[in-house]
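Project channel, design review

CF: Before we commit to the Streptomyces kronopolitis constructs, I'd like one complete example in the thread so the newer folks can see what an input/output pair looks like. Taking Oxidoreductase.
RD: sounds good, go ahead.
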Amino acid sequence: MSGTSDGAGAVTATPAAGVRIPEEPPHGLGVSLPSTDAAAKTEGTFPYAADLWAEGLLWAAVLRSPHPRARILSIDTKHAVEMPGVRVIVTHEDVPGDAAHGRGTTDRPVFAKDEVRHHGEPIAAVAADHPDTARLAAAAIAVEYEVLDAVTDPQLAFEAEPLHPDGNLIRHIPLRFGDADAMGEVMVEGLYRIGRQDPAPIGAEAGLAVPRPDGGVEIYTASTDPHTDRDLAAASFGLAPEQVKVVVTGVPGATADREDPGVSLALGLLALRTGCPVKLAATREESFLTHAHRHPTLLRYRHHADADGKLVKVEAQILMDAGAYADTSADALAAAVSFSCGPYVVPHAVVDGWAVRTNNPPSGHVRGEGAMQVCAAYEGQMDKLAARLGLEPDEIRLRNVMATGDLLPTGQTVTCPAPVAELLRAVKEAPLPELPKDAPEAEWLLPGGPEGAGEPGAVRRGVGYGLGMVHMLGAEGTDEVSTATVKVSGSVATVICAAVETGSGFSTLARQIVQETLGVQEVHIAPVDTDQPPAGPACHGRHTWVSGGAVERAAKMVRTQLLQPLAHKFGMSTELLQINDGKITSYDGVLSTTVAEALDGKELWATAQCRPHPSEPLDESGQGDAFVGIAFCAIRCVADVDIELGTIRVVEMTVAQDVGRVLNPRQLRARIEAGVTQGLGAALMENLRTARGQVRHPDLTGYALPTALDAPDIRIVKLVEERDVVAPFGAKPASAVPVVTSPAAVASAVRAATGRPIGRLPIRPQAAVAQTVQQ
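CF: and here is what came back for Oxidoreductase:
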């Protein structure tokens, strides 16, 4: 695995001779400060939402639709409500406020009323004195359905009858850039399909709702966007926002919207109706059926280039399956269309993107949404162009990569650092792994593992490349703002910020910011709830930038309050004073005191906001400055493929990434490695399968995830620390862009090994059988 960043930004597992590894200061930015909850999570003592308890607790269960599409003729709760131990049953008739909710578009009912639109849609919820009683009562609710033909092919959604009152088309983006009639001397076409990836969180959805004496309710759950969830809940309950409080419990990690809001809504309604605390812990099957998945996507591409391999025009059609409801599909489509040409200079582009409703499981925000799907397609096209022109895959990419100052096909100038060529050269020039020896003791290195059915002579090694890009923060005019408060008393500082720690490392970063700014080593991060000012959702690297920026500004304001009296006393400006290791000293050594002595028993505090420069919506031609910033990544994949069986073993992933600034080396490496592994899952195994809208095997047995045994060697050979001047600390998001890039790199390596086109992810074994074998 990777090691520590040197002065040039390179990261290696073992320092080469003569390479100087700088010593880290004891705390502050740039230090591998460990996470405060790391030990508790690894030891199994970390308190998750499923561990919550309250006096007089009731248990909840939800009745869900067994059909992907059906008309509800009647709902009979009579026998269920008469069961001993059942307190209350709620349906759509019991929702006092808004009957619909949704993160992006409020089009999803709290409980289905007239029609169910996807397998697993909630119809009713039960509160009982025992979890088994609640589940039995939910099963006893009699629902009469008229089963309807489900629309599960997004291509048929355009002509199908409306599946929702708002219609089937969620958004269409027709991007036009340059001359639509331009032609190249060489043209290649491709059809690509990306499967439905599930975020598969470590813990299934869970929560606890507690009624309040004022008629409101408190909801304890692992929300990643508590203020949005509070507002949705208040609207559904018919309450004012201040009457609903969302308290964020321990989040085991999130690569998507962590909790289905429907869980909180059902819990809150039951608590308000019973006057008792109500808890729900979803089964893994329920988790698979209800939360958002990555958008399955169909992509058709046509690339035009001149005889030297320089791109002339890209034509693309992108069709995203949103499932039954819109959620954040409009945002995912904007990212897909905007990045449809990749990190390449493309003079002309004609791209159409659509997001449509179907009766498939819901799609929504998953790390790298939109960008991952198009990356797999445009990188497949670059491999085809290289083969057509007789060029090496890396060479054709180098001839076309963008740099700072180039234009996206949306017309936006890339003003942030864009060292794409440097990243590609770094992975290309890194030494290749050794070939496995043809010996029995090394058979585990072959695809299929020990005792595999394949023969060493059928294994071919392929080397492939992927270049990816993601946007930072929200897009198209999203008001990105976060608020933070920093308090210092004695030798202890406290940070109050509603930024949820989802595994991104924000809590650790906030501690490091305060340590560096104020010289206070003991820094506490307050628990998150909606009594605090909003900090926004935990996605797109927001909290590193926006919430980290707010913490930095608040800490600097406290620093000024701390230093001003001393500066005034000694007749100097605060700029001539510095804080290190809890000590305040002047430039000339005249002043030397501790932070605690300077405080003299007082508590200092400050609140600050961070709001980046605004973006704008795409216009009717797909043009506009829609993004605040962009991050880039290059990955070289080395894969061994059994060309007779189609089994694949990824040997090594070599990564070079544009990070802006390394704030925590160990944490950064972990996030990159995790992102690469998540992308590997999308490339080779993860696909939530459906049959006519019915989810098949919604469990961790039927849905394959990469484990430590599947993870390849991940070598981070370069971290480019060219700071983005508009970002606090100059840092860029770390984990999304390797997720976007690694599936494309794996597919490229399998193409190189087999000669097959590889247009579907995850890659099926039959697709990896070499052409010569098939013939």
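RD: helpful, thanks. The first helix runs from residue 38 to 43.
CF: Residues 1-24 have pLDDT under 50 and may be disordered.
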